[in-house]
């Protein structure tokens, strides 16, 4: 398939495909297009975002079956072949002969690349090594000074995963403040978010508007652009004194206050009513996994708020009300809240 046709066909499944590099599109045309069409025939949409428990189980099953077929003796060898130079040639041959790409992605309606990254995260023994010691943090700073953002190289030197070292460096590279946000920090955050949103909208508009039209109009910001898929590591760098997760949480709080005109949605009778509505709607949805919940739709149940706000409130509910919630499935947590907590909240109201 030529490049333009590939873009056109993939656009049906991946709306943002034209912002992806040509080399990635060629790979997707080979690995994903036929699968996506097959899923469409079955009425299954292509998914993005967090992987559900069901998808994680399917990846485990696919990896285990591939190991049985090929005789490769570990998932680490299969997914991190470069760590085993003496076996590399044999493993790569077995992967090619037994259609590794097709087997790994079987039954999962997502781009192959995302499935592969997820599998690597799940099966990397370097990914679950607990907290970084003081010595490790110092080593990480030293290696970064020598090798920059070459996380692959640094991860090998530290025996930690690529993702782990990149995230940890992001956290320790500057003096992070963990106390209440100062007025100055909040202003920096607002400016940083405004800059990245403006830059994104101007880039998008460059193709659709002439410069003369652009100079005579206000930039109208789509509601979703205010909190979805913002480049938080870039915002973190602009703020300078806060870790990216803190920036994201603070921005959600600012937005919520703006959108609700400062009303305290989770206080008093309004708070009780919001919790009741949230539990009822989750119960009615009858979904098996948190990733299948339409949080956007749920945010209307509580009020005009960002979906991150609703997710945070659900987290607080399960942690404070559901005993041994870590050992329960999502549907068991919702059932418990509906059967045990809901009557109590209704009585209070």
From TrEMBL:
InterPro entries linked to this entry: Homeodomain-like_sf, Myb_dom, SANT/Myb, TTF1-like
Residue ranges occupied by any HTH myb-type domain in the UniProt entry: 124-161
Boundaries of every Myb-like domain copy: 124-172, 173-255
CDD domains referenced in this protein's UniProt entry, alphabetically: SANT
GO terms under biological process: termination of RNA polymerase I transcription
SMART domains assigned to the protein according to its UniProt record, in alphabetical order: SANT
Gene3D superfamilies reported in the protein's UniProt record: Homeodomain-like (1.10.10.60)
One of the record's GO molecular function terms: chromatin binding
GO cellular component, one term: nucleolus
Descriptive protein name: Transcription termination factor 1
Organism annotation: Eudyptes sclateri (Erect-crested penguin)
């Amino acid at each position: 398939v030529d490049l333009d046709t590939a873009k056109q066909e993939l656009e049906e499944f991946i709306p943002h495909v034209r912002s992806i590099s040509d080399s990635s599109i060629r790979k997707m045309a080979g690995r994903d297009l036929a699968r996506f069409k097959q899923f469409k025939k079955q009425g299954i949409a292509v998914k993005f975002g967090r992987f559900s428990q069901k998808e994680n189980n399917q990846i485990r099953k696919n990896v285990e079956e591939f190991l049985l077929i090929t005789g490769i003796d570990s998932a680490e060898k299969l997914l991190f072949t470069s760590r085993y130079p003496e076996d590399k040639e044999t493993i790569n041959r077995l992967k090619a002969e037994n259609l590794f790409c097709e087997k790994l992605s079987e039954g999962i309606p997502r781009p192959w690349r995302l499935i592969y990254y997820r599998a690597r995260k799940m099966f990397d023994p370097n990914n679950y090594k607990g907290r970084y010691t003081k010595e490790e943090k110092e080593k990480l700073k030293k290696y970064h000074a020598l090798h920059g953002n070459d996380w692959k190289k640094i991860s090998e030197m530290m025996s930690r995963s690529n993702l782990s070292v990149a995230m940890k460096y992001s956290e320790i590279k500057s003096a992070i403040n963990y106390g209440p946000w100062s007025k100055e920090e909040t202003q920096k955050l607002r400016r940083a978010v405004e800059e990245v949103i403006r830059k994104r909208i101007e880039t998008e508009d460059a193709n659709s508007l002439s410069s003369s039209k652009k100079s005579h109009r206000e930039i109208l910001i789509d509601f979703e652009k205010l909190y979805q898929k913002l480049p938080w590591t870039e915002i973190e760098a602009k703020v300078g004194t806060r870790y990216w997760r803190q920036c994201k949480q603070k921005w959600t709080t600012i937005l919520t206050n703006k959108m609700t005109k400062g009303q305290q949605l989770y206080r008093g009778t309004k708070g009780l009513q919001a919790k009741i509505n949230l539990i009822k709607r989750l119960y009615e949805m009858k979904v098996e996994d948190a990733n299948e919940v339409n949080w956007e739709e749920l945010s209307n149940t509580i009020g005009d708020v960002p979906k991150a706000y609703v997710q945070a409130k659900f987290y607080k509910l399960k942690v404070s009300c559901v005993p041994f919630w870590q050992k329960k499935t999502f549907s068991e947590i919702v059932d418990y809240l509906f059967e045990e907590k809901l009557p109590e909240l209704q009585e209070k109201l």
